[in-house]
């Protein structure tokens, strides 16, 4: 798999995951606001919405600051080690 | 702006298909104990990344994987937050409404599976309260079963707080409703 295909695939997986996550959250908020009786469900929906936004942007911030090349190198090391082990056998 | 935020302050407990002039007298959900147990379980799960980070700190640092661990934890908390509120949604949407005309049982089983049944007060024949076990006895919650004249399924209010008080209140409304019916005749 070349670099571009890999990058497109990873971006697509991230985009789909984010879409599914927000769709799930929207469904929760919609149910609470639409079918909830009284003020309690609306308050819960509001707290959930604020928390989701906060956690989502915290995750995006951490994602932007994380160096994933370390993980890539580690996986590469594991792959090479197992390969050499197979060769030795 | 004031109108938007008023939804958090006051509500007449209105619900779908409420009739004109129909007033909600009792709005019931399961006892808070039911959801507190779930919230505590989520609290325990929320501690997992902290425990793991403490236990594996030196290993993660030596392998330069601490940043990736923090990112994985943030994703874990995102999912946990949504699952916690999914449970809260299911808890909040299980409601039993007593109005001055009827009793409504609305239970939510997953996002797209909802049961709503209603029963007119004049059809209520007897009410049974069931309190099982030590916790329900101490915290004063239990089930309330309403029997109608027909052979149809009983209405079940599950794990509601103060079921005896609710039973008395419904019976009072039933007798009021019966006397109104007699006056009409």
Written overview of the protein:
The complex is a heterodimer of chains A (89) and B (185). By secondary structure, chain A is mostly helical. Chain A has one domain. Chain A has helices at 3-35, 40-65, 69-88. Chain A is elongated, with a radius of gyration of 21 Å. The mean pLDDT of chain A is 86. Chain B is of the alpha+beta class and 185 residues long. Helices cover 49% and strands 25% of the residues of chain B. Chain B has 6 helices and 7 strands, in the order H-E-H-H-H-E-E-E-E-H-E-E-H. In chain B, the strands form 2 sheets. Chain B has a 4-stranded antiparallel β-sheet with strand order 1-2-3-4. A 3-stranded antiparallel β-sheet of chain B has the order 5-6-7. In chain B, strand 3 and strand 4 form a beta hairpin. Chain B starts with a helix and ends with a helix. Chains A and B meet through helix 1, helix 2 and helix 3 of A and helix 4 of B.
Alpha-carbon distance between the two ends of chain B: 50 Å
Oligomer: heterodimer
Q: What does the average pLDDT of chain A come to?
A: 86
Would you report the number of β strands of chain B? Answer: 7
Overall shape of chain A: it is elongated
Strand content of chain B: 15-25%
Mean pLDDT of chain B: 88
Gyration radius of chain B, rounded: 23 Å
Beta-strand portion of chain A reads: under 5%
Task: Throw out a few tags for this protein.
heterodimer; A: 89 residues; mainly alpha; B: 185 residues; alpha+beta; three-stranded antiparallel β-sheet; 6 helices
Question: Which SSEs are present, and which pair or pack?
Answer:
The complex is a heterodimer of chains A (89) and B (185).
Chain A: H1 3-35, H2 40-65, H3 69-88
Helix pairs in contact in A: 1-2
Chain B: H1 2-5, E1 24-28, H2 32-55, H3 57-62, H4 66-93, E2 95-99, E3 102-108, E4 114-120, E5 124-130, H5 133-139, E6 141-148, E7 155-161, H6 163-184
Antiparallel strand pairs in B: 1-2, 2-3, 3-4, 5-6, 6-7
